[in-house]
């Protein structure tokens, strides 16, 4: 019997103005497990994550489905109830730390505020916890950094501050939305190493949102591929990279630049455009861009099916065919 799920999403659908933006999303996460949520911009990755932490935009609403933290359903909780969970049991690292950190508050006070919001702890003790977290995330001269403001720190340091704030209450789930997008390659690698080591130390599960398949290969245990608001493939990271089945997943992986590739060769691209949410294609939403599409794909919507009874699922009528 496997380890219990600490976070689970069941048949989630999110709508804006009665239009389904995200449909039929289901997945679960165990302690110390990383699930990568991948796909092109606008596919519904961030909306799915925001639903999990109760931060959907006012125009969006959960149309159906359930979200569970351990055995407790949290998708129907009030904002007041969610505040006790957000930052404590579930934390989130946003894309741009510079726009998330308060420019008028010192780093120490911002980290201390995160722990005092959920625990009855004196300010002096909270500052000691802040110092401990700065040491844990590898910030040099942490005593000095406590008294500094965000504008005095580099982008990489600000990202580490965000991780410290997110992890100070030792959440069960950490949602990381493109956590390395604005960082250079060296700082990106350091940030990923930090998240990996902290996951092992604290037992936190990670939902990693990214479009970078290299980051997926480096960090994830499992992968969920989304296209136009639907899950098209889901499975173990090694299986997905070794033998992707959905044409969209295959084309995503084939578009990754490789060292040693002839510089005169053009990069592989996925032809066409992401569909307009006001005019979703009938049948499989990927069919206008898919080299395997036929009449069945244009008229019938494929469901997520297990491949050979494995923990690998794909929503495609022709996932066994080769792309020529």
Structure report:
With 324 residues, the chain is α/β, with parallel strands linked by helices. Helix content is 33%, strand content 23%. It has a domain at 246-324. It is built from twelve helices and twelve strands. The chain has an eight-stranded mixed beta sheet with strand order 6-7-8-3-9-10-12-11, sandwiched between helices. Strands 2-1-4-5 form a four-stranded antiparallel beta sheet, with helices on one face. α4 (107-116) packs parallel to α7 (155-167) and α5 packs across α7. The chain is globular, with a radius of gyration of 21 Å.
Helix content: 25-40%
Mean pLDDT, to the nearest integer, reads 89
Q: Would you report the number of β strands? A: 12
Which sequence of strands runs across the widest sheet?
6-7-8-3-9-10-12-11
Beta-strand proportion: 15-25%
Order of helices and strands: EEEHEEHEHHHHHEHEHEEHHHEE
**Helical segment tally?**
12
Distance between the termini: 42 Å
Rough outline: globular
What structural category characterises the helix and strand content? alpha/beta
Biggest sheet record: 8 strands, mixed
If you compute it from the alpha carbons, what radius of gyration comes out, rounded to the nearest whole angstrom?
Answer: 21 Å
pLDDT below 50 for ≥5 consecutive residues: which ranges? none
């Amino acid at each position: 019997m496997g380890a219990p799920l600490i976070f689970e999403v069941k048949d989630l659908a999110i709508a804006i103005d009665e239009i389904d933006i995200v449909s039929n999303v289901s997945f679960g996460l165990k302690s110390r497990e990383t699930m990568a949520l991948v796909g092109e911009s606008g596919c519904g990755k961030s909306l799915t994550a925001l639903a999990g932490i109760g931060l959907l935009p006012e125009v969006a609403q959960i149309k159906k489905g359930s979200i569970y933290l351990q055995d407790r359903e949290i998708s129907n909780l009030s904002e007041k109830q969610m505040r006790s969970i957000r930052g404590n049991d579930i934390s989130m690292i946003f894309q741009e730390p510079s726009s998330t950190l308060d420019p008028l508050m010192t780093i120490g006070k911002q980290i201390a505020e995160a722990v005092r919001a959920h625990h009855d702890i004196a300010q002096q003790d909270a500052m000691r916890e802040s110092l401990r977290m700065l040491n844990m995330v590898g910030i040099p001269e942490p005593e000095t950094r406590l008294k500094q403001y965000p504008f005095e720190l580099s982008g990489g340091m600000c990202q580490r501050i965000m991780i410290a704030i997110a992890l100070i209450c030792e959440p069960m789930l950490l949602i990381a939305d493109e956590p390395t997008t604005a960082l250079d390659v060296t700082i990106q690698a350091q940030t990923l190493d930090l998240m990996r080591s902290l996951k092992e130390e604290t037992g936190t599960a990670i939902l990693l949102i990214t479009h970078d398949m290299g980051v997926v290969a480096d960090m994830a245990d499992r992968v969920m591929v989304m296209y136009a608001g639907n899950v098209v493939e889901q499975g173990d990271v090694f299986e997905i990279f070794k033998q992707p089945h959905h044409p969209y997943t295959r084309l995503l992986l084939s578009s990754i630049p490789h060292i040693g590739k002839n510089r005169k060769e053009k990069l592989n691209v996925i032809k066409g455009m992401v569909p307009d949410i006001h005019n979703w294609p009938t049948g499989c939403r990927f069919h206008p861009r898919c080299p395997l599409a036929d009449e069945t794909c244009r008229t019938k919507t494929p469901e997520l099916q297990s491949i050979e009874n494995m923990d690998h699922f794909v929503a495609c009528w022709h996932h066994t065919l080769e792309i020529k």
